[in-house]
Amino acid sequence: MAKMQFKAESKRLLEMMINSIYTQREIFLRELISNSSDAIDKIYYKALTDENLVFNKDDYFIKLTVDKDNRTLRISDTGIGMTKEDLENNLGIIANSGSFAFKNENEAKDGHNIIGQFGVGFYSAFMVADTVTVISRALGSEEAYKWESTGADGYTIDVTEKETVGTDIILKIKENTEDDQYDEYLEEYRLKSIIKKYSDFIRYPIKMDVTSHRPKEGSEGEFEEFREEQTVNSMVPIWRKNKSELTDEDYDNFYMEKRYGFDKPVSHIHIKADGAVVYNAILFIPERTPFDYYTKEYEKGLELYSNGVLIMDKCGDLLPDYFSFVKGMVDSEDLSLNISREMLQHDRQLKLIAKNIQSKIKSQLLTLLKDEREKYEQFYEAFGRQLKFGVYNDYGMNKEVLQDLLMFTSSKEKKLVTLDEYVSRMPEDQKYIYYATGESVDRLEKLPQTEMVLDKGYEILYFTDDIDEFAIKMILNYKEKEFKSVSSGDLGIESEEDKQNDKEAESANKDLFEEMNTLLSGKVKSVKASKRLKTHPVCLSAEGDVSIEMEKVLNAMPSGQEVKADKVLEINVNHDVFKSLKEAYENDKNKLGLYTSLLYNQALLIEGLPIEDPVEFTNNICKVMA
Prior knowledge:
The protein is an alpha+beta fold. The protein has 19 helices and 22 strands. The chain is elongated.
């Protein structure tokens, strides 16, 4: 038969598709296997309405056969087959999908859905093959036909012979080049790995003749190779099974098989959604952070399947950044895919799925927090920082989602508590949620600024992570209670009598404090009598939006920008040191300078800030000792 030309638009599409539509060559096998699965599905559908047709699932399969000598890969199926007209319409006009038309006529009522919809997947074969041959015999026909093409130039259709109903696709694999190794598509291990990756959950067996080893008869310790036919796909995905059929061990095994991590998941979520978008999902909350989690190399996302066929390894759009630690997969029949099935055409369905998944993850984490506290704390140790960053990021847009999941060490319990637990036990007269920031709990427990708050019997949250205070600044308040640093100017706990005493102390020592402020010009905003100190002589506090701890964090960043908090040096006028300070002011201005410098450097050290001149500081201590 004479060679027939593809239609002009089909020819352009074929050239474009071979060169650019698919991002990876290995996709060709996914597409051809999906087409074979569709062909078997079509017989299944016909059997539902044709009483003369019996569908025995054991009779239906897909088989891969490799001939290395002739460089051919054959994909055979026992599906419905194609007539001459089908071959012309489905393979002669690119992007004219027989599966799509069939699907429209036979909408699934029982979970069996046609995969192929776009009619271009078949042509991905030309990415790896010089010649593609299709031999097909349609159900109910005694005749078979051979379709053959070497690419965009056109195709031929001839009568041929085929004993059984179904389709064989024979690919003449290209020769290797300097840049491309096509031999891999003739290697058993490579074909198996592609099937496991993309087509593991096709519902029909995918068979291959596989090389195995067995003990050699009549010899000790020797083995021989032999070939046997094996089914290389799993067929029934775990997510399509009923939850009641599955154990925790089943989910853990799936986690390991899919290589989501080398740890054991803290928890799993199995979703079967039948709402606006129908999908199944299995999600895992890992136990430990991946080694690259806090690097730019880490890529978030869930595996995305369409009707059991892997479409994307990592679909980042399914997870918000603050839940980027979640591993797992989503399988939906409702996704609108583009012609290569590698990208989503419209994101409405994806957004609905993502919104539901976000809600399910939060719900699961809250359940863990409530019912399995130890597990939640284990998770929080690994990923709490990510949740706090999620609160801070996007100008606090996600704080309502995340604030109930946050935990901080409590001054009362010396362990992690939630904001809800803190607020629920606040005394009636307590106006604020108090917190202290620093490098460690041990250091914070000794912080002078905590004295007054603790003396009142109020609980303090210890912020030891550099993101903590930034996140809290975004939350602003929780259950109508504002957050207040123990280092802030007004703690809101002074009595009227205390305020009056402070005013008197400030007034009585105004000249001394002004003199000290002059001596520390450019280093502090002011010097004043402390309202908060009980036993310590001195401390630093901050005015304005930038705290001392925030100054440390921001200045440690590689931006090179220097940030300064408005520092206030607070002096305890009831401490013995203050008597020496006052005496020096009245009698020896040089000594006042010495004492002022020492107290300022002491306050810096307490805050974990570097002193400007360590040599001068040690010399000053020696002067005092002498």
